[in-house]
Structure formats: C-alpha cells, structure tokens
Amino acid sequence: MIIKWLQRLFIALIVVMSLYASIQTLISTKDLGSTSDDPVADWETRFEPLKKRLPFERGVVGYISDSSVPGAEFDPADEEGEYVLVQYVMSPIIIVKGTEQEWNIANLSPKAYKIWSKSNTGQFDIIPFKGNIYLLHRVSK
C-alpha cells in the first residue's frame, strides 16, 4: 500500500517537474523576441549584409562570441546554438572559432564588445552591423 502511494507520488512529481520545465522553456523562447516563426530565417536576414560585405564568396572566416571574451557573461547553451546557426547561414563560407583569420565575425553583446575592443585596439578594422555583429578585418598579425 505504501509502495503504491510512493509510486503515485513519484509519478505526480515527475509530471509537475515536466510541466514546470516546459513552461520555463516556453517563457524563455518567447523572451528571445523572434520577429517571425522561423528563427533561422531571422539569422539569415541578420547576417546577410555582413556576408555581402566579405570580399569573397568562399573561404574561411573566424568567429568570436561573448564566450571568447574573458570577463564577459554568456549562456553556454546559447553559445553553441548560435555558432551552429552562424555556420549554417554563412555557408558556403567556413566558420572557425577564433580571430586568427584575415576576416572574422564578432557576435558580441555591447558589454563583451567593450571589453574585447580594449584589448584588441589597432589590430582590426571594425565594420559594425545591426544586431551586435561586427566584421573584423585584421590589419596586423
């Protein structure tokens, strides 16, 4: 009798926790503020001006984000997903992490950009785009 009661309590607890997690996911997704029902299309629109500004249609481009900047806050779950989206929307250009390439993309929050730019003064020509993205052209190595 007690075992059946504990089993039911355990199942009820799992259902409640699942509902809570689902609601939290729904709320966090809503807070992202996607302008359409297709977030991939939003990323393509966001990166299209930057992609057109590159002097080539095929090649390798570096990529940094908030996680690349010491002292900047970031969400690890978002970081990996955003990196995959950038790889997808920039195709056929190959995106690699870091700024070792002649051309690089910085997808940085305003705070992370401020920190990054202080430690990289004079190393890049910086072309800003909407949505906190920057095209970085290395001027010194």
What is the strand and helix layout of this fold?
Blueprint: H1 2-31, H2 39-53, E1 60-65, H3 76-90, E2 94-97, E3 103-107, H4 110-119, E4 124-129, E5 133-138
Parallel strand pairs: 1-2, 1-3
Antiparallel strand pairs: 3-5, 4-5
Question: If you had to describe this structure to a student in words, what would you say it looks like?
Answer:
The chain has helices at 2-31, 39-53, 76-90, 110-119, and strands spanning 60-65, 94-97, 103-107, 124-129, 133-138. The chain is of the alpha/beta class and 141 residues long. The chain folds into 2 domains: 1-31; 37-138. A 5-stranded mixed β-sheet has the order 2-1-3-5-4, with helices on one face. β1, α3 (76-90) and β2 form a beta-alpha-beta unit. α2 packs across α3. The model has no long low-confidence stretch (mean pLDDT 88).
Q: Which features characterize this protein?
A:
141 residues, alpha/beta, 2 domains, 4 helices
